[in-house]
Amino acid sequence: MNAPRAHEAARRGRDRRAHMLAPRPGAPRVNSARPPTTAVVGGGIAGLAAATALAERGVRVTLYERGTSLGGRVAGWPISMNDGTTATMSRGFHAFFRQYYNLRGLLRRTDPGLRRLTGLPDYPLQHSGGMRDSFRRVPRTPPWSALGFVAQSPTFTVRDMVRMNPLAALPLLDVRVPDVYEQLDAVSAYDFLQSVRFPEAAHHLAFEVFSRSFFADPRHLSAAEMVLMFHIYFLGSAEGLLFDVPHEPFPQALWDPLGAYLQQHGADIRLSTAVTAVTPASDAGFIVDTGGAQQRHDAVVLALDTAGLQAVVSRSPHLADSPWRQRVGRLRTAPPFLVSRLWLDRPVSEHRPGFLGTSGYETLDNISVLNRWEGEATRWAERTGGSVVELHAYALPESSSHDIEQKRLLTQLHTAYPETRAASVVDERHEWRSDCPMFPVGGFADRPTIRTPQPGLMIAGDLVRTDLPVALMERAATSGFMAANALLEGWNVRGQTLWTVPRQGRSAALRALVAMGEAFSPRG
């Protein structure tokens, strides 16, 4: 196989101030009669990124995935419908933002023009009280993005602006990574917003929607993570807040092609194969145990969710060292969330957006109308005259009754989209999950990093500390590439070039304003 071509690398996008992370110099690929072998444990975004970077450069990759399909928390699987047809179910809507440079670079391996993604025209936010915000006409380049949003938003009035605490808001204007964690990790997202005195409606719409993207209650989420989100998607990036979505279900649009690409590069993909333990070998390699078979590898990347990582580490008592294993054991999982997908016998109103973020509708966090963009759902709606609607509820109590919460979401759909009251549900699927990482107040310093105390052992995923301005799916992809780069560096092979949004506030004027405010603050 040839070395990765230039167009296959992550791209900066439209933001001229995006930050490039060049890999260490080295050979374009492994030159050895016996190329190194690597076990990548986990077939989600992080594992796929790691496997791709390694396999492209001649490393012999074995990808272990306990599920029946690739994609991890963005996977999909076939279901049988009541009408006798089949459909693809998933864990719910995911937005592919334009500043997800490394994730988009991964997808370009099989789709150089990203033609399997389609852009939604707006990212509307709606409060049950009638307030509604939109990012469709907001300028993309900071600081005009913030000024444009405030000018157009019904949630910011002159009286509200006067009440705000500008000194408390200064961290939003000049986010520096990883310094923001030293500054704000000990504060909750809720307390930070209270100190700024944002208008209550803006608090719900513009910020709570962000914090709940981590599947967490703002009272328990680190303010540093929420402020970092604000930087990535708003004041720190010129890519804007509009996003793309796959034009077919996740397997068909994204992961099946990428799996075939990996196999073309010699990767051995083992689905329905759970790794139970990893044991250091006497020759500096690792023995990977799958509960009935063992295989030796020169290196290992653990790209698992929190519970999966903790399970493997707990059964691997000789892996790394005791302090590291204890840190892994202290990782926390966010509260449960619910995804309800409903196949309705009639369409929703034609003016409903493809995606709507909601606030004030009890537990309902967003509504998607899948047949606005996903081909499979569109074909079903055209054939039946109905619609496919998906509802999300984040950070639900552990003791939640599944039946009650599922009915509650349907009731709130009727409130938000009254025309659905007359619709019959011809089929439905409900996914209850509790496997997203939690970023608690004060937890950053204890978070495991990509490199571990044991040479040849890396971890990847959205749960790890990267010290970069990345989050959610982009953190997963970036960490996977970084794990691969760390291994390739040891084999004197050049890794993957990475991009992120700027690592500090992009506006000199705003940075000067922050410096001036800090000079006159009580701490100055």
Major β-sheet strand ordering: 9-8-17-18-19-16-20
Morphology: globular
| Beta-strand share of residues | 15-25%
Radius of gyration: 23 Å
Residues in helices, as a percent range: 25-40%
The tally of beta strands, per DSSP, is 22
Biggest sheet layout? 7 strands, mixed
Distance between the termini: 58 Å
Report mean pLDDT, rounded to a whole number: 90
Query: Poorly predicted ranges (pLDDT <50, ≥5 residues)?
Result: 1-8
Count every helix, treating DSSP H or I runs of 4 or more residues as helices: 16
Backbone structural class: alpha+beta
Describe the secondary-structure layout.
Blueprint: E1 19-21, E2 37-41, H1 45-56, E3 60-64, E4 76-80, E5 86-90, E6 96-97, H2 101-107, E7 117-119, E8 125-127, E9 132-133, H3 144-152, H4 158-163, H5 166-173, H6 179-184, H7 189-196, H8 200-212, H9 223-235, E10 243-246, H10 250-264, E11 268-270, E12 277-280, E13 286-289, E14 294-297, E15 299-302, H11 306-314, H12 322-329, E16 337-344, E17 355-361, E18 364-369, H13 375-384, E19 387-393, H14 402-416, E20 425-433, E21 457-459, H15 472-490, E22 498-500, H16 508-520
Short description:
By secondary structure, the protein is of the alpha+beta class.
How would you describe the overall organization of this protein?
With 524 residues, this protein is α+β, with helices and mostly antiparallel strands. The chain is built from 16 helices and 22 strands. The chain has helices at residues 45-56, 101-107, 144-152, 158-163, 166-173, 179-184, 189-196, 200-212, 223-235, 250-264, 306-314, 322-329, 375-384, 402-416, 472-490, 508-520; strands at residues 19-21, 37-41, 60-64, 76-80, 86-90, 96-97, 117-119, 125-127, 132-133, 243-246, 268-270, 277-280, 286-289, 294-297, 299-302, 337-344, 355-361, 364-369, 387-393, 425-433, 457-459, 498-500. Strands 9-8-17-18-19-16-20 form a 7-stranded mixed sheet. Helix 1 (45-56) links the parallel strand 2 (37-41) and strand 3 (60-64). Helix 1 packs parallel to helix 15 (472-490), helix 5 (166-173) packs across helix 7 (189-196) and helix 5 packs antiparallel against helix 16 (508-520). It is globular. The chain starts with 18 loop residues before the first strand and ends with a helix.
